[in-house]
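Any chance you'd type out a single protein's sequence alongside its tokenized fold?
>
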Amino acid sequence: MAYNGSGGKRLCTATDIDVERDVIHTISTPHGQVQRIVVFKKNGVQAMVEFESVESATRAKEALHGCDIYSGCCTLKIEFAKPERLNVFKNDQDSWDYTCK
């Protein structure tokens, strides 16, 4: 899918089973540098991943959309998200800012 001009550095992923932030990071990093991740656990699991570039986000979307995290489950549904930048208030199991040292 081509970049549509909004939210290109951010991806929203959804799965039907609880997935931790570190798993999202592990599957995202081969496609580009991850800057921030926020996981929401309401009505399933949604995670937002902010990449350093539109190109990285596009590569991740093309490679991961429709794939299973685990064999036969946790199918990823990925789309571009609208926020310009993810807000991470603290680094914990559900959110992380990888740009902070």
